[in-house]
């Protein structure tokens, strides 16, 4: 069986629709696989970008938590410092008040007129017995 060019041409003329359909299917297959490969690469890049963003967000969140913890520590330290300062000032005020009370009691026992005069000047009212 020898194939000649005429037989092949006659065969192509007779079955051109089937041959065209097969060629079209081959073209569609290769085109689809190329697009699928392109879409898959794009999908992989998107996943990588999301993972990078998630990592950056986690790092930023961790930094925010560290800053918040540091601020809380500073706040607690400041409150403790204020409490110590308050107690010291309170003690000074109590000592001063106790000293003034002792002085007023002494003045009341020794010179009540001086105390009466001081009260009248300080508060602006008159002493009546």
Summary, kept brief:
This protein is mainly α. The chain is built from three helices and no strands. It has one domain.
Write out key terms for the chains shown.
single chain; 129 residues; mainly alpha
Topology:
Elements: H1 5-14, H2 16-110, H3 112-123
Helix pairs in contact: 2-3
Written account of the structure:
The chain has 129 residues and is an all-alpha fold. It has one domain (7-123). The chain has three helices and no strands. It has helices spanning 5-14, 16-110, 112-123. α2 packs antiparallel against α3. The longest helix is centred in the middle third of the chain and has 95 residues, at 16-110. It starts with a helix and ends in a 6-residue tail after the last helix.
Distance, first to last CA: 153 Å
Helicity range: over 70%
Rg over C-alpha atoms, rounded to the nearest angstrom: 50 Å
Query: Given the structure, what is the number of helices?
Result: 3
Write the H/E string, N to C. HHH
Low-confidence stretches: none
The biggest beta sheet reads: none
The average pLDDT is 91
Proportion of residues in extended strands: under 5%
Q: What structural class is derived from the secondary structure elements? A: mainly alpha
Count of domain modules: 1
Question: So what's the overall shape?
Answer: rod-shaped
What's the β-strand tally? Answer: 0
